[in-house]
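Reading group handout, session on sequence-to-structure problems. Before we discuss, look at one worked example. The prompt was deliberately terse, the way you'd type it at a terminal:

> structure DoxX family protein

The input record follows.
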Amino acid sequence: MAYEKAFVLLRIGTGILFFIHGIAKLQKGMAAVVTTFGDLGLPGWLAYLVMIVELIGGLALIIGIGARYAAWGLAAIMAGAIVTVKWAKGFVGGYEFNLILLLVTICVGLKR
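And the output record:
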């Protein structure tokens, strides 16, 4: 029983983190985010997809509806961030935060 309550807290907290990152992209302005993606060698349209998945996926994790499916989309974003941007920076100050989010989203995706 305690495990289930802890899992719900972890799911909700992770959802809040992703939702806030989606909101941050909107506040920064999607034109700037598209430019950043382009500077990284990524297609600009991917910035919109990431923002949408962060917002909708984050909400799904928060409310618990469709959370397993949303978690796989969020896991893909974290895997992509690690591979394209964070890996070169190393573990500390690089991909450690993305790695824990990747692992949590995989756990949520596998939850029955």
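Points for discussion. First: The mean pLDDT is 96. Second: Residues 2-28 form the longest helix (27 residues).
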